[in-house]
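Recall the central idea of this unit: under ordinary conditions, the amino acid sequence of a chain determines the structure it adopts. In this exercise we apply that idea directly, starting from the sequence alone.
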Amino acid sequence: MVRKEKLNKETENETEKKVDDKSKRKILEKIPCVFEFINYISSRNFSDNTKRAYITDLEDFFNFIKKDVESIRTEDIENYIKYLVKSGKEDTTVERKLATLKSFFRFLEEKNIIEFNPAEIIPFRKRKKKIPDSIDEDEVVEIIEAEKKRDRAILAMLYGCGLRISELANLKKENIMGKFLKIKGKGGKWRVIPIPQYAREILEDYINEREKLNPKTDFIFLNKFGQKLSERYIREVVRVNGALKSGKRIWPHLLRHSYATHLLKNGADIRIIQELLGHSSINTTQKYTHADIEYIMMVYKKFHPREKEDKQKD
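Accordingly, the structure predicted from this sequence is:
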């Protein structure tokens, strides 16, 4: 557990604006549940950068809002978001700060410190998506390290098995066959997908916890009431963790896209990728390769026999 004094010292050492930081920390010192939350995320083995981001985001919010936690309402958070936008903050910064608040107030609600989560119904701002071709493998590793065991399992299975969001939401115990998943996808087509070891370990860890919540249901992913998790909430899990860890807008299908792209980059045959994704046509799978045209050309020039011959002639 991180002691308040140690946390304050570490925060002070990380910034050059010591005067501003002292005034911000005075605000946080009046809100004990903030330190309870910081202790909680510290126990989750987050990176130091992630923990500092949480602290800074909460400092900025309470410095602006100047209210007790119990009296904060949805409109207060909405006003803060408007303030950030008017101040010229980058979209990714605004999204990360909102993700922090969603995570913080959800923690307080689960601890019965507040009666409801005022950030829960606030949507992420609509903006033009600059869709990345895929996210880096290192970024995926960071994103998967979510706070909750359930959320880690969601992220690990979406990326580790390339599942559609509907397939994940409908995942049942009977679909898990040891090291494999048996999935009924679009058009009622069944496919078998290997579960990577890291994803199996994360999933098993969550299932052990989940059994205490509602052992009677066959659905794997449940909400706090023991009911099947909605696709909407799964999207929220992905977006919140993506914003917190990478500063990017991440959504479930992007993880599926990255799964296919990373397989391709590491030498997998596109026909195998087609089977793993559950595509009936190879044409559908080929759209996942558009991100890697330069990579494909590099491989072609390196390994195609005629290309090698032409290089030698040059």
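The chain has 16 helices and three strands.
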